[in-house]
Each structure stands twice: as structure tokens, then as C-alpha cells.
């Protein structure tokens, strides 16, 4: 039974995140609306209403068929062109930005609504065409329905102009970065809590639940998992954070007491695995997407260091938000009993995952190395009161200085780096000083 639940959850996520989700719903709505119009077209009240609208209603069977055929053909052409534009955007995003940003582009609701409006209008017009009666019928033409078809066609023209403008802007790297940044910032701020996180319990004597398959864990149904914990009177600890790749036999959950096989399967069913990375699932994916855009910008085929620099500026803001965050890492019941402990990525993990690739691909570019050091300096400045991450930030700054000294040979570039090091040391003080001499002394000591 649990595998059926997991299957339908996975199908639901795939459907909701599909480019065809809203178009399918809107098309069905237009189909139902067209059938409704056919039912009310010839009732006395509507016939009286149409007499007042007679100047705007079509006259003659040939004119009716011509109008509906023209609308159908025209909207079909707009739809084909719009779908072609979508494919072009996705191809451009994959080649110049990152394949991971594609789900965020195809799930933009406004674009799906436009495509749905095209499909719905075509379906609506086709239903009207088959309901045009012969010349001997009492009521030959669904004139009110045709008037609405013309209104829908004009609406589609306006939406087409919007679509072209929006789709051309959506591929611009600045807009893509801004969209990912805002979503990630929203996710970080909604992960916090007034109190400090609870300390993880000692789980040495706890029982492990192992993964039965392989895949990327992207979502956890925490409400369902909490319900199981209440019913079984257990506490669980989730071993890894979202995005982790589980293999069969890996311990995914630890349980405070031994449970039966059915309960273990129920707990496994609360974990959802799929390939796509959506920022709405966890802020970790937003960090990764911005970092990947920066790395892609530094590749020889694109060579766009300005995009990488802007990405680093956004990452530094997100890192600062993460530093100030008291993340909620547990769930309790109404009585305050701890039910679930879950793991969130640490600042050190985020720094390594996101800054290391940028450093590796930009290690010979002085502007990139200067920007990374500047970002770390800003993080250290934001932590000047709490002094919670100074050792970690100093270690990363020293690592960046080591790479810069090794791969940058130009004396002018090194002078700029030395000047930035002086400003960093002035900020950090003697206790956390960095520099090329400090690095040499540390290496010789080891």
C-alpha cells in the first residue's frame, strides 16, 4: 500500500510541475464552457438578450463558419509559434545558464495560462463549428457563442504580445538570477524561528530504517511523519538533508525504539524522490542554481565574468541570511514532545558546495578571486558581533588567497589582492589575520 502512496505522490509532483498542467486544466474548462453555451444559447432569456446585441452578432451561416475557421487557424498558428519560443528558451537556458533552472522556467504560471488560453479557444471554436445547424433548422447559428469566440481571439492576441515580451525577458540572466535569489531568500527566512534549534539527541542506541531504493530525496512529508510518530509513540531523526542521494541500504532514518515492518514502510513513504531541483522544496537548491550559473558563466564557451560576479554578490547576501538564521530542526506535538529531528545544511557545507567550484573555474581570474575574497570579508563583517563563524571564514579566505597566489602571476593583480588582504586584516584584527605570509608559515608548520 505504501508503494502505491509514493507512486501517486510522485505522479502528482510530476503533473503539477509539468508545462502542460495549467493548459490542460484551462482546456477542460473551455470544453465545459462551450457545452454550457450550447445548452443556454437558445433558451428564451438568452434569445431576448441577443436581440439587444444584434449589431455585434454574426449574420449568415457562411460568415459564422468563416469567423470560427479563421479564429481557429490563427490561434493555432500563435500556439505553434509560442511553443517554439518555449523550446528555444529552454534550449538557451540549458546551454548558457544551467539545466537545473529549467524547471523554474517551464513552471511559470503566466506562460502556462497563455498556452492554455490558446488551446482552450481552439477547442471552444471547434465545438461551436460542429453545432452550426442547417439552413432549415429553427435556430441555425450560435451567435452568442461566436461573439464570445471573437472576444477570446482578441484576448489571445493581447496575451501573445505579453507572452513574447515575458519569454524574451525570462531568459535574461539577470532576471533568472533575481528570480532564484528572491525565492531562495524567501525559503531561508521562512526556515527560521525565534528560539535556538534543539540539540540533537544521542542516537547510538536507536534503530535504523534503511532505504530500499536509490534516488535524490527532495521532499519530506513532515505532517504525515509526525502523525506516525504520535501513533507509535516514537521519535525519529532524519539522517540527511534534502537533495541527498540515497542508495539502497543507506540508513535514512533513526528511530527511538524498535518498530514493525509495516511502520517502517509507512515512514519510508513520507520521503519523496525525484530528479528536478525546485527552490520551493529547499533553499539549498537555490544556492546550487546560482552557483552553477556562475560556474557556467566562467566556462570558456561563454566567458561572462560579470554574471559570475553578480552571482557571488547574491550568494554573499544569502550566506549572511543563513548566518543569522535560527533554523527549526525539530517538530513537536501539541504537548511539546519532540517527534522529529531533521538535518539542515551548515554554513560550512554551503560555502564548500557553492564557492569551491567558482574558485576552481575562476582561480586564474583576478576579478573573480577578488570578488570571492570581498564576499567572505562581507560575511566576516556581518559576523563581527557574534564572532560565531570567524574561524571558518578565515579558513576559507586563506584558501582563496592560496589559490590566487598559485595561479595569478601578474604583479598588478597581486597588488590588488594584497590591498584587499590588508583591509580584511584591519577588519578581523590580529586574532584572525590572513595573508600570504600567514599561509607560508602555516604550510611550513605542517
Q: What does it look like?
A:
Helices cover 64% and strands 7% of the residues. With 446 residues, the protein is of the alpha+beta class. It folds into 3 domains: 2-171, no CATH class; 207-273, Aldehyde Oxidoreductase, domain 3 (Alpha-Beta Complex); 283-327 and 345-445. The strands form 2 sheets. Strands 1-5-3-8-7 form a 5-stranded mixed sheet, with helices on one face. The chain has a 3-stranded antiparallel sheet with strand order 4-2-6. A hairpin with a 5-residue loop joins strand 7 (330-332) and strand 8. Helix 11 (283-297) packs antiparallel against helix 12, helix 12 (305-323) runs antiparallel to helix 13 (347-362) and helix 14 (366-382) runs parallel beside helix 16 (411-428). InterPro entries: DUF2254_membrane. Keywords: Membrane, Transmembrane, Transmembrane helix. Pfam families: DUF2254. This is DUF2254 domain-containing protein. The chain crosses the membrane at residues 21-47, 67-90, 111-132, 144-164.
Amino acid at each position: 500500500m505504501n508503494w502505491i502512496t509514493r507512486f501517486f505522490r510522485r505522479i502528482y509532483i510530476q503533473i503539477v510541475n509539468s508545462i502542460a498542467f495549467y493548459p490542460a486544466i484551462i482546456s477542460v474548462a473551455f470544453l465545459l464552457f462551450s457545452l454550457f453555451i450550447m445548452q443556454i444559447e437558445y433558451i428564451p432569456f438568452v434569445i431576448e438578450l441577443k436581440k439587444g446585441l444584434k449589431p455585434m452578432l454574426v449574420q449568415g451561416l457562411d460568415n459564422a463558419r468563416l469567423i470560427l475557421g479563421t479564429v481557429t487557424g490563427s490561434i493555432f498558428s500563435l500556439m505553434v509559434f509560442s511553443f517554439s519560443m518555449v523550446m528555444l528558451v529552454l534550449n538557451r537556458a540549458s546551454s548558457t545558464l544551467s539545466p537545473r533552472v529549467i524547471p523554474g522556467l517551464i513552471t511559470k504560471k503566466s506562460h502556462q495560462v497563455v498556452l492554455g488560453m490558446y488551446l482552450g479557444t481552439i477547442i471552444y471554436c471547434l465545438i461551436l463549428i460542429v453545432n452550426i445547424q442547417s439552413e432549415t433548422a429553427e435556430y441555425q447559428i450560435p451567435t452568442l457563442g461566436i461573439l464570445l469566440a471573437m472576444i477570446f481571439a482578441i484576448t489571445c492576441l493581447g496575451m501573445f504580445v505579453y507572452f513574447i515580451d515575458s519569454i524574451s525577458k525570462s531568459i535574461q540572466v539577470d532576471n533568472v538570477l533575481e528570480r532564484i535569489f528572491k525565492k531562495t531568500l524567501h525559503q531561508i527566512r521562512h526556515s527560521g524561528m525565534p528560539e535556538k534549534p534543539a540539540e540533537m539527541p544521542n542516537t547510538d542506541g536507536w534503530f535504523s530504517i534503511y532505504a530500499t531504493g536509490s534516488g535524490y530525496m527532495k521532499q519530506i512529508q513532515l505532517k504525515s511523519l509526525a502523525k506516525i510518530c504520535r501513533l507509535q509513540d516514537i521519535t525519529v531523526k532524519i539522517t540527511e538533508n534534502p537533495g541527498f542521494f540515497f542508495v539502497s541500504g543507506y540508513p535514512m532514518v533513526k528511530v527511538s525504539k524498535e518498530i514493525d515492518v509495516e511502520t517502517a514502510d509507512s515512514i519510508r513513504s513520507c520521503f519523496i524522490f525525484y530528479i528536478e531541483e525546485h527552490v520551493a522544496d529547499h533553499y539549498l537548491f537555490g544556492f546550487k542554481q546560482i552557483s552553477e550559473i556562475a560556474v557556467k558563466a566562467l566556462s570558456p564557451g561563454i566567458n561572462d565574468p560579470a554574471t559570475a560576479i553578480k552571482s557571488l554578490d547574491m550568494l554573499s547576501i544569502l550566506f549572511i541570511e543563513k548566518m543569522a538564521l535560527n533554523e527549526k530542526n525539530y517538530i513537536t506535538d501539541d504537548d511539546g514532545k519532540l517527534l522529529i529531528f531533521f538535518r539542515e545544511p551548515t554554513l560550512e557545507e554551503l560555502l564548500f558546495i557553492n564557492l569551491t567550484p567558482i574558485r576552481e573555474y575562476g582561480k586564474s581570474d583576478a576579478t573573480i578571486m577578488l570578488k570571492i575574497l570581498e564576499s567572505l570579508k562581507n560575511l566576516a563583517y556581518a559576523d563581527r558581533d557574534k564572532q560565531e563563524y570567524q574561524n571558518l571564514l578565515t579558513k576559507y579566505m586563506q584558501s582563496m588567497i592560496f589559490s590566487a597566489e598559485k595561479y595569478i602571476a601578474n604583479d598588478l593583480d597581486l597588488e590588488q589582492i594584497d590591498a584587499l588582504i590588508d583591509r580584511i586584516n584591519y577588519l578581523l584584527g590580529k586574532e584572525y589575520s590572513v595573508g600570504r605570509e600567514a599561509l607560508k608559515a602555516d604550510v611550513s608548520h605542517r
